[in-house]
């Protein structure tokens, strides 16, 4: 058997510029998924180059199943004091609970600083120092690898506890079962939706290629409704620009939508609902079909319109 030789590759061969190249690469669903797998939680991008005073955090994200804010700072060099200060500034600016510093290498004193922060902040605050590597066998494509250098104490135990099913209520178990079966249904239909891991919650988020908005599917067992919406967490300008095209968008979708500016809040949503009794599992396939078809139309129509607005 002939075996290849594993070779380490300089990060700059793949990404010449941190913000323009690496940050944009990491913000893609499939690449952020690699980081999610390494730290053990689902991550979803809210915005790249998000403003914090005079500075910009590389990636502002959130944990999929809790909505906890996450800041990600990228440094394709060895750690330094300047970036450590920036990481703390970004975390405070967005009241983030999970702080991720991705670097080429970690100096001992900075590992010690991250360990100290994890030991001396409360249990809600979690700092990670992660080493970024690229590997190659022969002339193969570069393979990225994330390696945790420093993490919160008992992180794995905390994640297992937060996602374990033993403490879930009947409603949460029903939600988890519903979304898992929805995901199986969509996959069996070769859906083009970007399907993520399901969690025991009333919503299921789907990215459609924009850092400023995403699709959210929801179920409500109290009002007996299912819904599909475009959720815009932090851009009223985008919402109002889309609202100007209300008639055109609704015609393209062949749907009448609720345009919800949510005055007084940062977020806004564009939504359509349908009656559904989630407790009646015999009708789930009917609900899955509506959700999958509606989300697919939303993905096609809104991605086109969001891209046009952003030009």
Mean pLDDT over all positions? 89
Structural class based on helices, strands and sheet pairing:
alpha+beta
Q: Radius of gyration in whole Å, from Cα?
A: 21 Å
Query: Roughly how many Å apart are the termini?
Result: 53 Å
In CATH, the architecture of the largest domain is 3-Layer(aba) Sandwich
Provide a count of the helices. Answer: 9
**Sheet with the most strands?**
7 strands, mixed
How many discrete domains? Answer: 2
Tell me the CATH topology of the largest domain: Trna Endonuclease, Chain: A, domain 1
Number of strands: 12
Shape: globular
Helical content, roughly? 25-40%
| Secondary-structure element pattern, one letter each | EHHEEEHEHEEHHEEEHHEEH
| Low-pLDDT ranges | none
Percent of residues in beta strands: 25-35%
- The CATH C-level name of the largest domain is Alpha Beta
What does this structure look like?
- The chain folds into two domains: 6-162, 3-Layer(aba) Sandwich (Trna Endonuclease, Chain: A, domain 1), CATH 3.40.1350; 164-310, Yope Regulator, Chain: A (2-Layer Sandwich).
- The chain is of the alpha+beta class.
- The strands form two sheets. Strands 1, 2, 3, 4, 5, 6 and 7 form a seven-stranded mixed beta sheet that branches. A five-stranded antiparallel beta sheet has the order 8-9-10-12-11, covered by helices on one side.
- The protein has nine helices and twelve strands.
- It has helices spanning 18-26, 29-39, 81-93, 108-120, 155-163, 170-188, 236-243, 246-253, 284-310, and strands at residues 6-9, 43-52, 55-63, 69-78, 98-105, 126-137, 143-150, 203-206, 214-220, 225-232, 258-260, 268-275.
- Helix 6 (170-188) packs across helix 9 (284-310).
């Amino acid at each position: 058997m002939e075996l290849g030789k594993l070779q380490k590759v300089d990060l700059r061969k793949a990404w010449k510029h941190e913000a323009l190249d690496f940050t944009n690469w990491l913000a893609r669903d499939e690449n952020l998924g690699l980081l999610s797998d390494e730290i053990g939680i689902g991550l979803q991008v809210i915005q790249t180059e998000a403003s914090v005073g005079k500075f910009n955090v590389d990636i502002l994200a959130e944990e999929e199943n809790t909505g906890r804010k996450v800041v990600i700072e990228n440094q394709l060099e060895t750690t330094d004091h300047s970036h450590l200060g920036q990481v703390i500034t970004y975390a405070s600016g967005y009241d983030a609970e999970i702080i991720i510093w991705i670097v080429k290498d970690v100096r001992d004193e900075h590992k010690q600083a991250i360990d100290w922060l994890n030991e001396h902040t409360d249990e809600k605050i979690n700092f990670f120092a992660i080493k970024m590597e690229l590997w190659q066998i022969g002339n193969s494509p570069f393979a990225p690898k994330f390696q945790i250098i420093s993490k919160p104490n008992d992180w794995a135990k905390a994640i297992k506890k937060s996602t374990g099913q033993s403490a879930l209520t009947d409603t949460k178990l029903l939600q988890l079962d519903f979304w898992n079966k929805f995901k199986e249904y969509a996959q069996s239909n070769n859906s083009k939706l970007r399907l993520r891991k399901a969690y025991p919650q009333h919503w299921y988020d789907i990215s459609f290629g924009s850092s400023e908005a995403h699709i959210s599917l929801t179920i409500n067992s109290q009002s007996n409704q299912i819904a599909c919406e475009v959720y815009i967490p932090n851009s009223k300008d985008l919402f109002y620009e889309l609202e100007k095209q209300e008639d055109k968008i609704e015609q393209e979708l062949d749907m009448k939508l609720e345009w919800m500016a949510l005055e007084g809040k940062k977020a806004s949503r564009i939504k359509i609902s349908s009656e559904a009794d989630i407790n009646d599992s015999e009708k789930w396939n009917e609900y899955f079909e509506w959700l999958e078809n509606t989300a697919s139309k939303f993905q096609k129509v809104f991605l086109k319109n969001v891209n046009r607005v952003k030009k």
